[in-house]
Amino acid sequence: MSHPFPPPPIQPFERLQASDGLLINAERWRKAHNYHRVRQNTHYQCLNQPGIVCGLGVRDIPAPSKVEAKYRDGRWVQIQPGIAIDLAGNLIVVPAPYDFPIDLEVANTEPLMVYLTVSYIDPEDLRTRDSRDTVRETYRFDQRNSTLDISEIEICRILLEPGKKEITQPTDAFFPGYNNINLRYRRLAQARPHAIVKLAQLNHSDAGCDRNFFNLGYLLQSIQPLYSYLQGTEEAGQVTLSEKNIQEYDILYLTGQQALSFNDIELDNLRKYLSTGGVVLVDAPTDAVPLIESTHSLAEQLKSPLKTLAEQRRDHPLRTQPFLFAALPIINQRPIEISTNGKIILVTGDLASAWGLDKELALPRLMIRTAQELGINILNYAWKRRQLIGLQQEDDTGKW
Question: What's the fold here for domain 195-390?
Answer without folding.
Answer: Rossmann fold (3.40.50)
